[in-house]
């Protein structure tokens, strides 16, 4: 029965050909993101992965005789496995150490900034548990979501998990110079920002933007 469980779990994982994370993308594909900073970070991660594979291959060659009966994974297999761990491992404190864990089924929970539950090590460190915040408000068959990080910007989400969140409240854009010194018409700025940053029904979001303007 245990073997069947692991086989079923294995079928839920993306194949190497899916290349779901930017870590497995080509430079041309990274350019399509139109985010040079993200592309540079991914390329640095790919270089580190290549170095790790070199160390892994050397250790494999010097490993126990048990490994002789197995085929050594290729560099592509190594990066694929690394991407699976990178996108699915759950980090938490275990005693005095922060550890990354691959928890069956829990790794299938999708991200939202308004999660239905949390997934973490219990307070006594004896078990891994999923706590539903308001069980009575979760209808049967509804998806149980978790947060991958309440303050994560889309660049981090894309690099680590391969997706971005529309209207991510943590995203920002930088303006060169001192905004307070710019002669801007606030009404025109509101009109442009309303069209670019927020749907018309999100008045509260726009109020937060315009209230922070220095004019």
Automatic annotation (TrEMBL):
Coiled-coil regions listed: none
Signal peptide: none
CDD domains attached to this UniProt entry: SET_LSMT
Domain of life of the organism encoding this protein: Eukaryota
GO molecular function, one term: protein-lysine N-methyltransferase activity
Residue ranges crossing the lipid bilayer per the database entry: none
Alphabetized PANTHER family for the sequence: UNCHARACTERIZED PUTATIVE METHYLTRANSFERASE
Protein name, entry field: SET domain-containing protein
Source species: Pyramimonas obovata
